[in-house]
Amino acid sequence: MDKKDIKSLAIGAFDGMHLGHQALFKKLDKNGAILVIDKNSAVITPGNYRCEYTDKPCFFYDLNDIKDLDDKGFIKKLKKDFVNLEKIVVGYDFAFGKDRKYSIKNLKEVFDGEVEVVDEVKVDGISVHSRVIKEFIKDGDIKKANRLLGHTFKIVGEVIKGAGLGKKELVPTINLKVEKFILPKDGVYATITDVNGFYEPSVTFIGHKKSVDNSFSIETHVIGKDIQKAEGEVTILFFEKIRDNKKFENLKDLKEQILKDIEIAKEIVKEHTI
Questions:
Q1: 273 has pLDDT over 80
Q2: Which residues contact 267 (CB under 8 A, 6 or more apart)?
Q3: How far apart (Å, rounded) are the C-alpha atoms in residues 196 and 52?
Q4: Domain end: 130, 165, 184, which one?
Q5: I want to staple 190 with a disulfide (CB 3.0 to 4.6 A). Which of 28, 94, 244, 265 is the partner?
Q6: CATH number at residue 236
Q7: Global pTM?
Q8: What pLDDT digit, counting tens, does each position of 129-150 carry?
């Protein structure tokens, strides 16, 4: 859909594309689109990955390009880019412009079309807000984060070469370099990992390898498989934390724990994928 065809816009940072954001998207008409104000920092759902959670076209403004605009300047830019814009949809806490000094009131004053404000969304009495979901993720409470997201939290990383210790002494893993996604608290998680186009049950470790060299690592073991060749991007979906990161006296004890983690992960993943 071309910008000239857009008649309604949902505007926001849309970090997470969570249930609160989905409530805004439902207010768009058939010629509606999503305008993401992208902060280009580590977020729940960065960049174009947001587009996977909607059937509406997504457009992006870099925050640095618009952060110093006043209310009139912001609307002028919108009207220039979306010449047939008739309706703006925002959340109840929307603010914009330099130092976020402009409010919904200002938006209604300067925009000559309709402004629809969507109320706060709650799940189990908890406000569905990106800030809240981030805290759950950082605390390792993936189950609560997923409830508020309305989908499964994921990270995407580039395959990098590991030390090879896992395959020799423990279990084979795929090592990842992850950028722009926020990371869960250090620990071991029940996950599924997409390698070469297929999602497989997995156990994922994030943190400093206390029992080895204390280097930071993000690595995933695809249960029951020794992936000989993984390259490019790998996606990991997180279901639940199994345990905290801890130091073991030797590799034998670590391997015994990993095998226990694998059995726990199998049961957790089974609950989510049946």
A1: no
A2: none
A3: 18
A4: 130
A5: 265
A6: 2.40.30.30
A7: 0.92
A8: 999 999 999 999 999 999 999 9
> How many independent structural domains does the chain possess?
2
In the block, which residue shows the tokens 């909607």?
54
Reduced 3-state DSSP string for the chain: CCHHHCCEEEEECCCCCCHHHHHHHCCCCCCEEEEEEECCCCECCCHHHHHHHCCCCEEEEEHHHHCCCCHHHHHHHHHHHCCCCCEEEEECCCCECHHHCECHHHHHHHCCCEEEEECCCEECCEECCHHHHHHHHHCCCHHHHHHHHCCCCEEEEEEECCCCHHHHHCCCCEEEEECCECCCCCEEEEEEEEECCEEEEEEEEEEECCCCCCCEEEEEEECCCCCCCCCCEEEEEEEEEEEECCCCCCHHHHHHHHHHHHHHHHHHHHHHHC
